[in-house]
Design brief:
- This protein has about 425 residues and is mainly alpha-helical.
- It has 2 domains: about 1-200, Preprotein translocase SecY subunit (Orthogonal Bundle); about 200-420, SecY subunit domain (Preprotein translocase SecY subunit, Orthogonal Bundle).
- It is built from 16 helices and 5 strands.
- It has a 3-stranded antiparallel beta sheet with strand order 4-1-5, with helices on both faces. The protein has a two-stranded antiparallel ribbon with strand order 2-3.
- The longest helix is centred in the C-terminal third of the chain and has 36 residues, at about 350-385.
Length: about 425
């Protein structure tokens, strides 16, 4: 089915059309909220401050300029993402949470998600307070004390929880993952400003750099598509079974293992982890105790170095790729399900041997996916350090998220169309 036929089917099918329109209007509401300033803002802008802080700069990108406008959604969906990270870390420590996530089906996952939502509320309050204190210490907003500080913290936290709710509604009544689409919309909304900045600062002597950036963007898009779609098939054979007068099984198929099982989640996780310590250190740097403030400023200065930031960023993305793959893909349950279904991998004994075989293959191919994600994540930071062009600082990560979300959205729409064809 070509593009025109798919578009015609989307327009004609009322349910599919309503789902797409729901996503569109939800993202419009998000963009509207990103331009409503908090009461303490007073028309303040953070452009110069964000230009020197990579983590906060990316937070501004994924909120669609919400942070630079000191808007009510300047935290974005960061608290919810952080809560999800903490909950998934706890599954490695708690057998009950692991069983809830892996073994209790859809009902268990819904309960697990509900716990993440509840945890996001105190995290939003804590991150909102820390960010407001940091903006106050930088002179971006006026003096906040007592009731004003509490009020603005609650407003910022409520804006983040509202975005989380909008994302859940998109996932339920729209198409695709709501949180990913909100991040996608924030990045796309910032592209005109980034393009305008490049045009405003255009220097003919930097033309080879710009051409190199364009070629790098094309290579990144091609690489993301290849790695995202790449699979390692594991051959599977179903044993023959005789039931009555019929013979079942004897069919050979394969188990597809994706090279990048985690998608863009590790990058989002890593950015959330990078942002939080910087906000905390900036908060501690403003306290009256000279020892605490001095240590916080020294550590903050060390972490703000581009190369140090890039190294930590790469390591976090690499580790989170393995971690998220381990949480979401359980070789033991795959091996158990294959054994129950009368299937086996040729040359491998069912049960524990099958689980170990799948784990070894998954570890090897995840190495490729984790290295790719880490390189793509830090490449723009390295380019900024070499070229000095700030507008290129987050291009790779943003492009990676945009391409991955678009690919996922296209698959979801194709799946909806296929369902209606049948």
């Amino acid at each position: 089915m070509d593009f025109l036929q798919k578009t015609k089917l989307i327009i004609q099918d009322s349910i599919l059309r309503k789902r797409i329109l729901f996503v569109f209007f939800a993202l419009v509401i998000f963009r509207f909220l990103a331009n409503i300033p908090i009461p303490a803002a007073g028309g303040a802008r953070l452009d110069e401050l964000l230009a020197g802080n990579q983590a906060l700069g990316f937070l501004n990108v994924i909120t669609g300029g919400g942070l630079s406008a000191v808007s009510i959604v300047m935290l974005g969906v960061g608290p919810y993402i952080t809560a999800s990270i903490i909950m998934q870390l706890l599954t490695m420590m708690s057998s009950k949470l692991k069983a809830l996530y892996h073994e209790e089906g859809e009902a268990g996952r819904k309960k697990f998600t509900q716990y993440s939502r509840l945890l996001a509320i105190p995290l939003a309050l804590a991150q909102g307070f820390g960010l407001l204190f940091y903006l106050k210490s930088q002179g971006v907003i006026g003096s906040l004390a007592g009731f004003d500080l509490i009020t603005n913290t609650i407003i910022v936290a409520a804006g983040s929880i509202l975005l989380m709710w909008i994302g859940e509604l998109i996932s339920e009544f729209g198409i695709g993952n709501g949180v990913s689409l909100i991040i996608f919309a924030g990045i796309v909304a910032g592209l005109p400003a980034t393009t305008a900045q490049l045009l405003y600062t255009f220097d003919v002597s930097q033309l080879p750099v710009y051409l190199g950036g364009i070629l790098a963007a094309i290579a990144i898009v091609a690489g993301v598509v290849v790695v995202t779609e790449a699979e390692r098939p594991i051959p599977i054979t179903y044993a023959k079974r005789v039931r009555g007068m019929k013979i079942y099984g004897g069919v050979s198929t394969y188990l597809p293992l994706r090279v990048n099982q985690a998608g863009v989640i590790p990058i989002i996780f890593a950015l959330s982890i990078l942002i939080f310590p910087q906000v905390l250190l900036n908060f501690l740097g403003g306290v009256e105790n000279s020892i605490v403030s001095g240590a916080a400023k020294a550590i903050g200065g060390f972490l703000s170095n581009t190369w140090v930031n890039s190294i930590f960023y790469f390591i976090l993305v690499f580790l989170f790729t393995y971690f998220y793959t381990a949480v979401t893909f359980d070789p033991d349950s795959i091996a158990t399900n294959l054994q129950k279904g009368g299937a086996f991998i040729p040359g491998v004994r069912p049960g524990a041997s099958t689980s170990l075989h799948i784990s070894k293959i998954l570890t090897r191919i995840t190495l490729v996916g984790a290295t790719f994600l880490g390189v793509i994540a830090v490449l723009p930071l390295a380019m900024q350090s070499i070229t000095g062009i700030t507008a290129l600082a987050v291009g790779g990560t943003a492009l990676l998220i945009v391409v991955s979300v678009v690919l996922d959205l296209i698959k979801k729409i194709d799946a909806q169309i296929s369902m209606r064809e049948y």
